[in-house]
Amino acid sequence: MTATSAASRVLVLNSGSSSVKYQLLDMRDSSRLAVGLVERIGEDTSRLKHTPLTGEGSSRERSGPIADHEAALKAVAEELATDGLGLDSPELAAIGHRVVHGGQGFTEPTVVDDAVLAEIERLIPVAPLHNPANLTGIRTARALRPDLPQVAVFDTAFHTTMPESAARYAIDVETADAHRIRRYGFHGTSHAYVSRATAELLGKAPEDVNVIVLHLGNGASASAVEGGRCVDTSMGLTPLEGLVMGTRSGDMDPAVIFHLMRVGGMSTDEIDTLLNKRSGLIGLCGDNDMREIRRRIDEGDERAKLAFDIYIHRLKKYIGAYCAVLGRVDAVAFTAGVGENAAPVREAAVAGLEGLGLAVDGELNAVRSGEARLISPVGARVAVAVVPTDEELEIATQTYALVDK
Questions:
Q1: Is 301 in the active site?
Q2: How many Cβ atoms sit within 10 Å of the Cβ of residue 170?
Q3: Given 26, 44, 68, 155, which residue is catalytic?
Q4: Which of 71, 85, 157, 262 has the fewest CB atoms within 10 Å, i.e. is most exposed?
Q5: Which of 244, 235, 246 is nearest to 100 (CA)?
Q6: Tens digits of per-residue pLDDT, 148-204?
Q7: Considering the entire predicted model, what is its pTM?
């Protein structure tokens, strides 16, 4: 029996180390039935916020200790059941899980079994902050509904179409292969969704469009998408490579690490913390919120201005590089928290790139909207777009398509 004949709902779970984000969607019309967040799992100050989006229900919150992910998901199930949307509903077709790292093996959404779980666990060394939490969420959901398909949707999957010339680092091949060292890329569900949505905005099929996608949030990444297939992306073995981010350094001479060890006397753990949590915008100016940085710039803060300038300089380098990689660019799409909401970032990122066909219309760029829209001047050679990402819908769509087969 297919999913469409028996059920149409998909629960999407994004399990972090101390949080669970969730959405319940009805795939008949891609509508959301409920959304929520459990945060500070394992603490006395845990909090669950649940918002039903059907009927006239309003948001509900519960506070107090939530010991672990199992307790968190049981609490989520209780909230959904209160709205008649429980996990025992025959209308629930599957649970879709975000998994950050799928390595080279997982190139598409995959129904979870013991072998899949073992492989996700084997990849923990290249995603130590994310894959363990993702695994916990999957195992807990399987225990709650062992009869229901659990589908893993991988952040890295969209980028597995990169050619070897883009995916390999220029290091000894045997060493790289022995330790699975290559460029994997991340934010794949966002890049997949936004590249397709950009093509739709242009009234074209994805296979006819070349798009540079700029996913700019606290984590940030760029991708070059040729005819619907990723051919290059800025993140690498881990999400540390590439653009300047909220707390991550992005691209850097690897010899800096050796220098910090030999001259600075820092341990590998200290350097890891420095580059992942104390670098990027917060390392440069003490803030990783672009709104606060822009406020400080308006007040004449030179340190905030330098951080912004470094952020934009790196962004421009990637835009130019991906113009070269693609040869023909039909659109540049800004997405995620900063990309969707920070007009000054969009304006600065394309300023001076008129020779590449890039420009923004000041009035269009200033408009705040939750809709996909063009912000380039009418008749521009390259479209510049703002396309709100929807990773949960992408995960639900991929999950449902798989179980419907």
A1: no
A2: 6
A3: 155
A4: 262
A5: 235
A6: 999 999 999 999 999 999 999 999 999 999 999 999 999 999 999 999 999 999 999
A7: 0.91
